[in-house]
């Protein structure tokens, strides 16, 4: 018994853990000087970075809103008189934001942006790729207001002028997207103001080239072969449109 007591007294006392020579236990004082729980975390450190973040957030919200709009139109929850201007406004805002070189470089393209933020929104994706409202692709046939009882002379003249302006641009060797896309958008808008719900041969060619231009980068240009084919298709569309006026 005495031996056991002496042995217990002489045995080394072990620590509950063995600190390594590289371990560090921060003091409460050092924590309080480096981290403040009341301090606001800033997502940007400059006004330029803040504006960039706000622009990317705007693009995100446009995609979400456009997807909701497309689904509402498909379900007949809204009519084309509400859908068309709203869709045009969203598409215009999207294109305007991407005209900023800084935003465009960070955005990349639509698919990479969707991967970055882990989103899908297929209806909005399709509409952004096409670049025009669904009513421009296939005018609604179920709306009484979409079929004009008579053709406005001014609307017909505007459409004709837009056709001629676009074809002249091609003949003058305009090849950049930023030159051609607005002009062709004016063509389809003016055509719809005249034809309403009436389809005519050649409309799909206008839509086809709108999609091609819309999917190009802001500084991209069409090839010579594309320009020739585009002129041929739009001339045919114009001739068919003119026949329908009579």
Describe the protein in words.
The chain is mainly α. It is built from twelve helices and no strands. α3 (47-74) runs antiparallel to α4 (80-98), α3 crosses α7 and α9 packs antiparallel against α12. The longest helix is centred in the N-terminal third of the chain and has 28 residues, at 47-74. The chain is globular and about 75 Å long. The termini are far apart.
> Secondary-structure element sequence?
HHHHHHHHHHHH
Q: What distance lies between the first and last C-alpha atoms, to the nearest angstrom?
A: 123 Å
- Structural class by sheet pairing and helices: mainly alpha
Multimeric organization: single chain
Instruction: Tell how many strands the DSSP assignment holds.
Output: 0
Radius of gyration, in Å, reads: 32 Å
Low-pLDDT parts are: 140-149
* Major sheet size, sense and barrel closure: none
- Helical residues, percent: 55-70%
**Share of residues in strands:** under 5%
* Shape call: globular
| SS element count, helices | 12
Average pLDDT number: 79
Summarize the structure.
The chain has 246 residues and is mainly alpha-helical. 66% of the residues lie in helices and 0% in strands.
Reconstruct the topology from this structure:
Blueprint lengths: L1 H9 L17 H7 L12 H28 L5 H19 L2 H7 L2 H7 L5 H9 L3 H4 L15 H19 L5 H19 L7 H12 L9 H22 L1
Which terms would index this structure?
mainly alpha, 0% strand, 246 residues, globular, single chain, 66% helix
């Amino acid at each position: 018994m005495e031996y056991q007591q002496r042995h217990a007294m002489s045995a080394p006392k072990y620590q509950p853990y063995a600190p390594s020579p590289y371990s560090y236990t921060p003091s409460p004082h050092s924590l309080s000087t480096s981290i403040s729980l009341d301090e606001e975390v800033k997502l940007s450190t400059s006004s330029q970075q803040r504006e960039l973040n706000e622009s990317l957030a705007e693009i995100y919200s446009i995609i979400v809103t456009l997807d909701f709009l497309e689904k509402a139109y498909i379900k007949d929850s809204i009519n084309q008189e509400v859908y068309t201007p709203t869709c045009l406004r969203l598409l215009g805002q999207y294109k305007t934001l991407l005209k900023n070189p800084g935003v465009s470089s960070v955005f990349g393209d639509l698919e990479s942006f969707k991967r970055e933020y882990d989103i899908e929104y297929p209806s909005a994706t399709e509409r952004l790729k096409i670049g025009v409202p669904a009513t421009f692709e296939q005018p609604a046939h179920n709306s009484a207001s979409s079929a004009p009882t008579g053709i406005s002379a001014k609307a017909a003249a505007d459409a004709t002028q837009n056709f001629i302006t676009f074809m002249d641009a091609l003949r003058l060797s305009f090849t950049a997207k930023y030159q051609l896309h607005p002009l062709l958008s004016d063509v389809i808008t003016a055509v719809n103001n005249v034809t309403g719900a009436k389809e005519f041969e050649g409309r799909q060619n206008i839509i086809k080239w709108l999609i091609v231009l819309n999917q190009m980068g802001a500084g991209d240009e069409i090839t010579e072969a594309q320009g020739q084919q585009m002129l041929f298709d739009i001339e045919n569309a114009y001739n068919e449109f003119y026949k329908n006026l009579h």
